[in-house]
Amino acid sequence: MKMPYSVSSKKRTSPSKVARDAFNVYDPDIRRQSLAQLSSAPFGGEEPYVRMYRMLLDDRDPTVRAVCLKALGDHGSVEDAQKMIPFLEDEVAFVRWEAAKALKKVHWPSAVNPLIKTLREDEDVDVRMTTAAALGQYAQVSVFQALVGALDDRNFGVVNAARNSLKTLTGQDYGTDGVWWLTWADNHRGKLFEQQQAYYWQ
């Protein structure tokens, strides 16, 4: 999914000026550009700036919400997952996508059910694909079942992401045929995740 924003390469300004621009109430483009610039800076993960990303997460402009989610995914704490989860239901697809990407980077068990719901119901391919990847860190039966279900998705990218997550969770590879996965699971009740592999969000 191509994001509707990019970081400007204009002349450098002081961090304090950029931070003030993040609160410009008149121009969302200025807010978005300043937040993107701050989050990509070497100091962008310092606590005062992380607090800023949290504060502006509910901005009325979707591009600002999206850049704040990305910034929290890069610099926030595990607890920020609580703030990310509601944006899986944002009205704008690229905001939901950034929320799913951010949730790939944190382990928060309460995110499982919202991620499963998004995988099953979201109309956007990139959101479903990213959600399938994010679920690869949760060794739960409900996750296994949701990922097997996603093997029937109409988009191959989603199918492939679900397969990769199943491989990570089980250490097995039965391709993209859900019947084979379910047959294997039926013969390994209680042992689905004995050979779980390391999860990498990238």
Q: Can you describe this structure?
A:
About 3% of the residues have low confidence. It is built from 11 helices and no strands. It is mostly helical. The radius of gyration is 19 Å and the shape is elongated. Helices cover 55% and strands 0% of the residues.
Outline of this structure?
This protein is 55% helix and 0% strand. The protein contains eleven helices and no strands.
The H-and-E topology, N to C, reads as HHHHHHHHHHH
Number of helices: 11
Number of strands: 0
Mean pLDDT rating? 92
| Uncertain residue segments | 5-10
Span of the ends, CA to CA: 16 Å
Report strand %.
Answer: under 5%
Structural class: mainly alpha
Describe the largest sheet.
none
Helix share of residues?
55-70%
Shape: elongated
Rg (C-alpha, Å): 19 Å
Keywords:
0% strand; single chain; 55% helix; 202 residues; mainly alpha
Note the topology.
Layout (H helix, E strand, L loop, with lengths): L14 H7 L6 H12 L7 H9 L6 H14 L5 H4 L8 H12 L7 H10 L3 H10 L6 H10 L5 H15 L7 H9 L16
Helix pairs in contact: 1-2, 2-4, 4-6, 6-8, 7-8, 7-9, 8-10, 9-10
